[in-house]
Amino acid sequence: MKMNRFKQRVSCLVLALSLMVGLGLFDNNTNNQYLENTIFTVEVQAKKANVDITYYDSAKTLKNKETVTTYHSNGKKKKVTVYKYNKANQVKYIIKETVYHSTGKLKSLTTYYDNALVKERETRVKEYLTANKYGVITSHILKVDHSKRTREKYFYQKNTKYSSKKEKSLVRIDYYAYNYGTKKQVKTGYSTYKNGKKVKTDILLKNVPYYNQKKEGYLSGCEFFSLRMALAYKGVKVKAETLYNNMNKSMSKPYKKNGVWYWDNPDKMFLGDPKKLMLKDANWGINPKGLLPLATMYRDAKIKENASLTYIQNQLREGNPVIVWGSARFNKPGNFFYFTDTDGNKRFTYGNFHVYLVIGMDDKTVTIKDPYYEGTKVISRSQFKQSYEKYGKKVMSIL
What we know:
Layout: H1 2-22, H2 28-32, E1 38-45, E2 48-56, E3 62-73, E4 76-79, E5 83-85, E6 91-100, E7 106-117, E8 125-131, E9 137-143, E10 150-156, E11 170-179, E12 184-194, E13 197-204, H3 222-233, H4 240-246, E14 255-257, E15 260-263, H5 288-295, E16 301-304, H6 309-317, E17 322-327, E18 336-341, E19 346-350, E20 353-362, E21 365-370, E22 375-380, H7 381-388, E23 395-398
Parallel strand pairs: 15-18
Antiparallel strand pairs: 1-2, 2-3, 3-4, 5-6, 6-7, 7-8, 8-9, 9-10, 10-11, 11-12, 12-13, 13-20, 14-15, 16-23, 17-20, 17-23, 18-19, 20-21, 21-22
């Protein structure tokens, strides 16, 4: 009987040691690369293991405690909450950290981007919320991946306590973007809320340089002059002559054969010469696909067709000026010219074609930098939609 009890105790000890080795508790060097100042408490119950992960500061004061429940089937992990583990059951990835005041009230809640190594916590923060000892929210910030830069700041009604329904107490969100060209973080706008429902959004990119194509002798160069302004905002200053020389141009007019008009492909080059006056059938323009190679010589850029107003506004919120293919003076497009390009595609142009730069948008208006006419101009959303919808809502964002 004593021998059986001894064997049972030895078996339990071996099992406990195996679990501790499996969790990496005796491998300090390996364990510390994942999570420092951590105490693991393991309780084994059949195929279920509860792991309490407890954080202490330098004064040995309890800072944070999370209970992670894992379910095993044939020795393999089936479900893990809050943390992810490697094969040795060591904490490797961290998803969320919660810290409490001594009163038991929430002190801070940190959410991380997916697959954030614990040792990378400072540079992988997605969202950070703090509250005072009464549980009232004192700050709430959304951050940018791989940096400490702010992306959004949340503001709440006075004395809002943290809860799953905290969004209903939102009063404002401020938006921020980092301009990698100028190496500055800028505020791009804000949204206001009433009872948690968005009632207003106002986005505006400030200090966007202005260039006038007429004054510099490029009568139909609105595409690359809009690009020039966007690049300058991103910290890349390029001369108009340089852009002109680097852009693909056909320098030709359309020709008629067997009753059909033919011209070059505007997805590949500028139709005509940007220095000359634009007409529906002469010196007409270039599409986003044709302008993209020129843009990406200096900055990252992306194009989109059928772009909604929400898409444009979101690009602006991210700090990206948006080049839009529309119409002169934002009038309804008219005086159409139909042709077939050199690749066999059916195309059309129109006499009041124009391209401009969008730098701002709120719930009622759109702010434009127009390289040919009024400089900076604020127009209604309905005017803007009338201008850019006919040609397929084509836009290019400079990143």
